[in-house]
Amino acid sequence: MNTLFAIILVFVGCCSNVVFLELLVRDFPGCGNIVTFAQFAFIALEGFIFEANFGRKKPHIPLSNYVIMVTMFFTVSVINNYALNFNIAMPLHMIFRSGSLIANMILGIIILKKRYSMSKYLSIVLVSVGIFICTIMSAKQVNVEKGATEEDGVYAFMHWLLGIAMLTFALLMSARMGIFQETLYKKYGKHSKEALFYNHCLPLPGFLLLSTDIYKHAVLFSQSSPVEIPVIGQSMPVMWFYLLMNVITQYVCIRGVFILTTECASLTVTLVVTLRKFLSLIISILYFRNPFTIWHWVGTAVVFLGTLLYTEVWSSVRAAVKGEKADKKAE
């Protein structure tokens, strides 16, 4: 029952979160910092009350280790959201972030000296090819759509290229953080909810560096047209409503993933998250009419095929089917 509930939370929370994020970004492409700050502040407040018991509960993992993890987590979150300022379409943003498998494997080989099976290497090649196809097609669209003159087109392309570089850096940094987190869990035990709280609480002072941009967008949000909130019947600026819903759905999404990690095997978690990403991508394309060519579809299919191959879903399904057949014969 808990597993089904968690899966529902992941799909409803994460897919809704993508919708509200795109609604925010469409009107204010540079609002990534205020979105990140709101998400961090909400999760930190919830964790301070229910996990840290108003600061009375001592952490299982030393704070010095959390400081290192938090520095990486804060950097990844800010850069991922800020990259949307550089002509990065939401579908490409989601596809690119699906390349975390590549980054994890590369750093796993370099840092942890891991070795993988041929199917794992094949899956990474598929994911890389899929992301490459989508990125190249998006680059062509930037050249065509941005600017009437050749000089404007070159500037738009370089601007977009900087966004791609930021996403690449965030991808590698996220993989490095995952490896660091894995080593901490092996040493001190798995404390996911504690890590969730400290990852969102400790970076809050860092937002002082972004306070000017956050304040500017807070003013812009307050000037947006009012909308009446269902049920309570009160009105508020529509952008603040979108931000509130984005924060709530982000929390629902994270809670769903947390429950899944405690209830299910990592394979199940990866499969659910992968399917959720695919559904979010479809919603973004159809609902917001984002430009998506046949080559984008090909690239997307290759990315998800590689992801499913990496998680060994096919072999697990075959094993389950064989197990059922064996049980029937025994009967």
UniProtKB/TrEMBL annotation:
Its main location: membrane. It comes from the Eukaryota. InterPro entries: SCL35B1-4/HUT1. GO terms for molecular function: UDP-N-acetylglucosamine transmembrane transporter activity; UDP-xylose transmembrane transporter activity. The keyword Heme does not apply. Keywords: Membrane, Sugar transport, Transmembrane, Transmembrane helix, Transport. The chain crosses the membrane at residues 37-54, 66-84, 90-112, 121-142, 154-175, 196-218, 238-260, 267-288, 294-313. NCBIfam families: nst. This is Solute carrier family 35 member B4. It comes from Culter alburnus. The lineage of its organism: Eukaryota, Metazoa, Chordata, Craniata, Vertebrata.
